[in-house]
Amino acid sequence: MRRAWVISTGTELALGQTVDTNTAWLAAQLAALGIRTLRHITVPDDADATRDVLLQAATACDVILLTGGLGPTDDDLTRQALADAAGVQLHLHPPSLDHLRAFFAARGREMPERNTVQALLPQAATALPNTCGTAPGICIALSGTPCYALPGVPFEMRAMFEREVAPALKRLADGAALLSRTLHTFGLGESDLGERIRDLMVRGRNPEVGTTAGFGLVGIRINAAAPSHADAEALLDQAESDLRRRLGSIIFGRDGDTLPGVVGALLAATGRTLSTAESCTGGLIGTLITDVAGSSRYNRGGAIAYANQAKVAILDVDPEEVEQCGAVSDVVARALALGAARKFGSDYAASTTGIAGPAGGTPEKPVGLVFIGLHTPTGTTAQKCLFGSDAPREAIRLRAARTALDLLRLELMHAVTHEVSGSGR
Ligand code: ATP
Ligand code: MG
What we know:
single chain, alpha/beta, 6-stranded mixed β-sheet, 5-stranded mixed β-sheet, 42% helix, binds magnesium ion
């Protein structure tokens, strides 16, 4: 598998004033072409620093991509850095000068003298035509390693990459494939999950397995490198089935799947309906559910019952229960879910009641305590969750909403299995 370094130049990038989007875009293109990116490097507008990085890259990879610094001003130093790295002089490239003059003429302007520098090329380099700007790109071999210097302006860079660079890289990659797949999980922390799949996560293994986590969701990303697309697919399939065998139902989907999307598909498949009664999540579960197109097939509606009075008036929660147990209790969570199912006439209902903080916690009921109620055709239950008293409000709310969706998912999966085995299919 061929390996690349991707270099961006620009003081504004190095200082964090502009977000470097070019290297991310290029690395994704390279992966799609079957080339693995080993390094992303950002250097300020400094010819010596750029030359040094180029020299290092030339000994460490099979292809170098560089963006930025091809403009006409004094801070555009890429041409000089390339010439220095190759140990050659810059010379005028007449066809590029013609292109520059024509570019300005087409806009009814005289070419400023300064722009002539954009037609300078290191000896033995090839100019890459710029179809949407002034600066040509440059292709040059550095100690035998091909290096492509592209404009910094993102749309110019993309157009030039697609037209002038991608076909050559495709030949260089020689059919190799670098494919990736993500499995989405819920219900196990990143470190516990990592323990269970530790052997698969060993560095240097192919496929490579890694995890990313956020607000209760843990993604497992699998990257497979192989001489052909089919071989890479086979490696991904093998790793996926291995992970599914070990992790079972905590995996809820892959790639573009989402938790509310999966819950919605299960509801649609079983012809069941859903409603929500939300206190501390303030409509977040309802938002996640209705983010899914077609949710009207199964979503009956929801109530945001924040004040005790609303819980009583809208969802028929018994005021004595609120008084005795407090609004944040399993009793009230169940009553909310049951109330929603009755009011909205749904088969399933999810509810939340908790303390999202940062204030309002007590030793008995700390910030982060959330009860999640679930009504199903077979009964009404509540689960106590502790999302951490130091967690930010948005984290507690999002984790609570996702936990409610995941409880629903597990319940629906159970119902589907039951129905299938019960009907003798
Ligand atoms: P120009 O002819 O416009 O000077 P150039 O090739 O010299 O083009 P730069 O001067 O480095 O490119 O950058 C031009 C513009 O593109 C700037 O606004 C810069 O912030 C933006 N840009 C450059 N590099 C990147 C990058 N890696 N990611 C996102 N934007 C970038
Ligand atoms: Mg510039």
